[in-house]
Amino acid sequence: MGLLADIYLANDDADALQYDSAPQRFTDRLQYGTITELQLSMLWAIAQGVKWEAKSLRQFVNVFHTDDGERLITRLPVPLLTDLAALTPEQASAVAEKWAASAEMRCKPADARSIIEGLAVCGRKAADTKQNVYLWNCV
Fold this sequence. Notes:
The protein is α+β, with helices and mostly antiparallel strands and 139 residues long. Helix content is 42%, strand content 22%. The protein has a single domain, classed as Hypothetical protein yfbM fold (3-Layer(aba) Sandwich), CATH 3.40.1760. A five-stranded antiparallel beta sheet has the order 2-1-5-4-3. Helix 2 (37-48) packs across helix 4 (89-101), helix 3 packs across helix 5 and helix 4 (89-101) packs across helix 5 (109-129).
């Protein structure tokens, strides 16, 4: 069984709910596999240079879940996106190296860097358009 993960922009939580039934309606979206709010919270801690704490997950707002959590939508915290968008290219590379090496990711640094850059772009566009960034997961 695989995990699908899409990151997309929506006007608000009500609009974001439409993604589950009509993802093609959302033009600003990125598609990944195996990205969860836990992994994103760990990325955030690495970007901030702090130790990860479970309480950081409270800033990720669950706006939808169905089928015992097989599909869910989470609103990403604006400060996470702001922090990622503020990284210099050198900092983004260093963060990607650490995140990629974590037990939760175990991927190539280039793959982690691609996700970080995608999140930064989404965060900047969301700020410019007064939208939110959401994570849709499907098991």
